[in-house]
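User: Could you go from structure to sequence for me? I need the amino acid at each position, not a summary. Structure tokens:
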């Protein structure tokens, strides 16, 4: 599903301030895997996600998505494979537009034919039905501006919009970092549910080791631009939360 073939990434290559953000990262992620990525600040986690998304290009190596070599494709050219949720709930939605209009825009952006086809009324009904999964009562507020919602509510809707399109890969880059514990928990459980329901392949970057322990079926630890641990499903299930804390000592 995702192949990262011997990828390295340097910033400011050849200059005195060159940074080797990733060195020889080689990894295969199977369809349906939910991979959690942990590591200290600056260890290369976001760069790794950016390389998969195409927001930054590798200095060396190849990125293959569903057997397509996308190494030199730009971010928007990869959007049919990839959806992304960022740390900041304000990214990804337009605050002055209503919830419904935001969903309409998202469906146009991703060209999900399933959503575009049908009248406005049918579209609204579909969005309502989807939003009710969140159990936040937002299905009755479709005409409310996105900006009037809390960060947690906005992030939940962003997550939902991003999984409703055709993309099969979901990248979650610290999606709960800006949220209070209750909203964070809601986002994590919602993401988990949606990943299973839509059969997505997902990558979650997090500093929350409790979440890293609870969610996903594989865990990677990055250090200084390299993968230093790759723990598969069965081993991950046997990990204690304390084991994860010990990785950082
Ligand atoms: N655009 C850039 N220009 C120069 N250096 C960069 C750039 N982006 C990242 N880096 C450097 O690459 C290294 C890896 O950064 P990255 O953001 O991938 O780490 P991270 O593990 O996501 O960190 P954090 O947990 O703090 O978000 C760091 O040394 C960082 O300073």
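Assistant: Here is the amino acid at each position, in order:
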């Amino acid at each position: 599903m995702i192949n990262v073939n011997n990828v390295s990434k340097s910033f400011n290559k050849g200059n005195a301030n060159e940074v080797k953000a990733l060195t020889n990262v080689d990894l295969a992620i199977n369809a349906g895997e939910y991979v959690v990525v942990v590591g200290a600040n600056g260890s290369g986690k976001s760069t790794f996600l950016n390389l998969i998304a195409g927001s930054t290009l590798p200095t060396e190596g190849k990125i293959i998505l569903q057997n397509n070599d996308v190494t030199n494709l730009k971010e928007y050219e990869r959007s049919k494979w990839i959806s992304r949720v960022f740390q900041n709930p304000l990214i990804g939605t337009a605050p002055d537009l209503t919830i419904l209009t935001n969903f309409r825009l998202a469906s146009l952006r991703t060209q999900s034919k399933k959503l575009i086809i049908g009248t406005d009324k049918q579209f609204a009904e579909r969005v309502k039905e989807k939003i009710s999964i969140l159990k936040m009562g937002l299905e009755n507020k479709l005409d409310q501006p996105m900006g009037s919602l809390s960060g947690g509510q906005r992030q939940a809707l962003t997550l939902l919009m991003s999984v409703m399109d055709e993309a099969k890969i979901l990248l979650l880059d610290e999606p709960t970092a800006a949220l209070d514990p209750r909203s964070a928990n809601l986002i994590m459980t919602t993401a988990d549910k949606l990943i299973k329901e839509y059969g997505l392949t997902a990558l979650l970057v997090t500093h929350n080791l409790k979440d890293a322990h609870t969610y996903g079926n594989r865990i990677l630890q990055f250090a200084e631009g390299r993968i230093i641990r790759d723990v598969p499903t069965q081993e991950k299930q046997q990990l204690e939360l304390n084991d994860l804390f010990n990785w950082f000592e």
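One structural detail worth keeping in mind: The longest helix spans residues 181-197.
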